[in-house]
Here is the input.
Amino acid sequence: MRVSTATSGRSDSRVFTVVVQGYGTALARNAERTINVPFCRLQALMQSISQLGGKVISVSPAGEPAPVAPAAAAPAAPTPAAAKPALSKAAVSHADVPVNLYKPKDPFIGTVTENYSLLAEGAIGRVNHITFDLSGGDPHLRYVEGQSIGIIPDGTDANGKPHKLRLYSIASTRHGDNMAGDTVSLCVRQLQYEKDGETINGVCSTFLCDIEPGAKVKITGPVGKEMLLPEDEDANIIMLATGTGIAPMRTYLRRMFEPAEREKNGWHFKGKAWLFMGAPTTANLLYDADFEHYQSQFPDNFRYTKAISREQQNAKGGRMYIQDRVSENADEIFSWIENPKTHVYMCGLRGMEPGIDEAMTAAAAAKGLTWAELRPQLKKAERWHVETY
Ligand code: NAP
Here is the structure.
């Protein structure tokens, strides 16, 4: 374990702050504790923590910020050399994650069960929630939260060849919206852009937004291991989503807070979750009523922060983007990240990434740390998950 003892050259009147987990009486064992000790007692405290099976989260000179800490390092006495934060791997289970059960040459044929708009009146564009029946497949097309599936739209391209598949993030938990474990749902925006004065509609997104219940659709996958949730029920989850990038976040939040889903999955989330959601207008917010409801039911566990770009302004008078909300809350977000149980998930427009890096750079600098060094460590520790386009 690396610990910060940056002032170790001084006299032994120094005091250190030790953050420890699983140490103390029965009640205190589950909590994280902060203990201040004089240098002369530090070694004895470390030995005691070690003997009682506690976990040292960080050691730093009292009054100075703790380094970003390793999750499961063995307790050890501080060494003068280490001033750099260190990170260890957080548990994200990749075991039993299905991949490519159905390939483009032999896709699963799913049946549309419902297709409805997620937008309120006055919203910009079209975004639909579409559900497919997956029953009857051999193998069964199963998936977990954070994965994507491929859709091959009907018809042929300009060269007369069958269309290629498009990937969409799954918006339902592994149990599906009906809890029966045999459906998958997507959240799809119809892609539209102007070319030479003409409006071009995206091939697959238009195919999906127009599709009727009962229609048969070619489905491939599932794919993806980047956006998996950790198994730890005490994990903290920060979610940064723009537009339909909300899809994986909806699966996480249902898994955490939707009563029927919680009962079914047996995964009783006890950590904290914080969703930052970016949408152009209030009418474009996706699954907003559900998230508001979770916030009212689980106020200690869930926070929901919106950036509504065309209705709210950032501090500079420009459009309020998700990175502006991150910037406003950067110190708090950073202190969450210092906790080794915290994971960050980002999904949606690639354009949000530089702004989020900028906000984190400033927050890290305020603590004497360098974000450009920390972020790769978080990534390596499988605590920084990005899927942007
Ligand atoms: P959208 O509704 O067009 O936009 C969502 C919000 O992001 C709007 O408020 C928009 O603001 C804002 N925004 C625009 N540029 C931004 C920037 N540089 N930084 C931060 N915010 C910005 O979103 P959408 O059409 O649903 O698109 C979401 C994107 O996510 C698509 O590119 C889609 O392909 C992708 N996506 C990825 C995944 C995945 O990674 N698996 C899953 C689903 C979707 P203004 O428009 O007001 O400027």
